[in-house]
Amino acid sequence: MEILVSPSPEAACLRAARIVARLVRAQPHAVLALPTGTTPRGIYAELVRQHREEGLSFAGVTGFNLDEYVGLTPEHPRSFRRALQEALYQHVDLPAAQAHAPEATAPDLTEAGRRYEDRIAAAGGLDLALLGVGRDGHIAFNEPTSSLGSRTRAKTLADETRAANQPSFGAEPVPRHALTMGIATILSARRCVLVALGAAKADAVARLVEGPLTAMVPASALQLHPHATVIADEAAAARLAYRTYYDTVAAAKPAAQRED
Length: 260
Known about the structure:
The protein is globular. The mean pLDDT is 96. A seven-stranded parallel beta sheet has the order 1-10-9-6-2-3-5, with helices on both faces. A three-stranded antiparallel beta sheet has the order 4-8-7. The protein has a single domain (2-257), classed as Rossmann fold (3-Layer(aba) Sandwich), CATH 3.40.50.1360. The chain is built from eight helices and ten strands. Strand 2, helix 2 (41-54) and strand 3 form a beta-alpha-beta unit. The protein is an alpha/beta fold. Helix 1 packs across helix 2. Helices cover 34% and strands 16% of the residues.
């Protein structure tokens, strides 16, 4: 696992955006798993800037939302599909037919999960999974105790997760369930990039990087991935015991391996 510490949230987002942009330029038909929420906003803003000012094209890219609230249509103002549309898709040249989200209103959610897995496979598999992490260590909506071998399926959300997302819903209750890529789905990506910002994520970052591999910290499954990168700002990296070593490794990378 590669650990990269950036001096600020803005620098961390810029670093992550450069990794995504480099992949898209090298593989114009890249398949991406994409998150929503506050963490990736700066990443998407930089990708939009590069599209407008540097000619970065998403015309051949296929995007898959990591998750979606059960019961919300793609047009719902609080749906993750709409959030990604507003943050990224509507500002770049990615065709609508190449933007996918879990069918969270399907009558059979188990079958909807299978169809989503089939769509990912038909696209050639995930080239990159861009991830955030919850305070309890969840990735996508894989809450603690989620199976490390899980695939796309419905999950019941923890009260803490719903409380963290409540500000986005105002007086409207946060849905109790979500349809989410599983941990095994995420690990199937050829590369994983997890971005963590702020002091509230410091414990989760330390546990996913340096703690034991455990279903109680779903993000710790990234320890199994052959090409996983964790990008944290200073506040999110504050509890890493081996911080000095990670900085040494990053500084000593050969020029050919540097991405920023």
